[in-house]
Amino acid sequence: MKYDPIKRKLGVLFNSSPGLRKLFYNLLDLLLLRSWHIRKELKIWEASISGKQSILDAGSGFGQYDYYIAKRYPDWNITGIDVKKEQIDDCNKFFSKIRLNNTSFKLGDLTKLEYNEEFNMILCVDVMEHIEEDELVLKNFQRALKKGGMLMVSTPSDQGGSDVHHHDHEDYVNDGEQSFIDEHVRDGYGIADITDKMKRAGFTKTKVYYQYGKPGKLGWKLSMKYPIVMLNKTYLFFIILPLYYLITFPFVLILNKLDVIRDHKSGTGLVALAWK
Questions:
Q1: What is the largest CA-CA distance in the chain?
Q2: Pairing between strand 119-125 and 54-58?
Q3: Which residue ranges form the domains of the chain, and what is each CATH number?
Q4: Which pTM does this prediction carry?
């Protein structure tokens, strides 16, 4: 299965107008379980702080989380950094077009991050599994945070959440089948592993827990895996995709909700929080 060609085709479609791109963001927030966990932790963090905040999205991609935060808090400053110039240019153009002027995107390498005590919170979603020098990046994050600032990481776990040779960006579930892309440098993190790395980087407090437990695994198959499998067989499936989601969407919402409200003894993803 190949995810990137389909992702590019969807990107072209949803980039054809600002309204469609906003719709795409909203659909991702509903379908992608990691987005549910991120929004849950953001709301918990928001309740603990006050005043204007400065946010770094480390590995901003197509700007899904920047859009979510910028809409909620127009007086906050949000900076997105990514290594792909085309994504930086695309996000700057889109956010300028919709006049979310509290957000800017910059080309950058997280291993060479040079910020010093500039951010209240750093968000890092589906990035650490792609970086060999992860402890260097964690140290850079710790230095970039203000005192009391929080780092929020979402990443595959070592419970079957990644395959360094054949693994999809969205594929936290490894069923022993070939996955989508070849970019991961590790098989995922264990709770003790990423906790120790965060502490060595200088963080004083950590909280790490599993996401993508049993409900999340099934929800991911319905919302992402099966559609991608069918689209890899024929792009004609785009025609019936709306009907497929009309049928499965209620079940996906229930499964995602269950995954967020339950504690999991194991799971194929991790949420890792750390405070300076």
A1: 53
A2: parallel
A3: 4-167+175-215+265-275 (3.40.50.150)
A4: 0.88
